[in-house]
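Open question from group meeting: does this chain pack into something compact, or does most of it stay loose? Before anyone orders reagents, we agreed to write out a predicted structure and look at it together. Recording both the input and the output here so the notebook holds the full record.
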Amino acid sequence: MVGNGSLRASALRAITTLFAIAILAGAPDSGHASFATAFERYNAKDSEAARIEAEPDAERGNPAAQWLLGTIYLLGQGIDADPETARRWFEKSAESNYPPSQAVLGRMFEEEIGGRQDAAEAHTLYRLSAEQGYADAAYLLGRQFYFGEGTVKDGPAALKWLTIAADDGNADAQFLCAKILLTDEIVEADPDRAVA
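Structure tokens returned:
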């Protein structure tokens, strides 16, 4: 576990932001009526009822229900926070190729939340999620390419993934894209493209 409380708080804020974006975008596609009820209860701030409602679907392998339980356990909503249990639910969901869980689990690997730290594993999960069109994962993947964390530093790859996230409205990606395009730091500067 991370000993630095500030780093842990920062990571949890970032993960919370990912969840909030997913929630604001609407309930993840689940195909199960009980998950829909659980998600409605979660949005109504009744996390305890949402957890109880989602558990049967999660146990049956519904990746959206597993994601919801991971969220509730990670953030300690209606229960004590339990990052280890959260990580197990995100792992199950990510194994079903569920993009929001892959992105959050990647962040948990990157920040050593609920288990071991592994930036390379985070990179793999971000890529899997981003390749399915999950823009927040595209930002996290682009950021890794930019800083050379979990992979080699790669300016063109960073710009590619950050642009995808920036085009989806991610402010952090927009800032990093502009920085890349206005400097010769990792690719040749292109100020005209930075303001387009």
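Observations to bring back to the group:
The chain has a mean pLDDT of 86.
The chain is about 70% helix and 0% strand.
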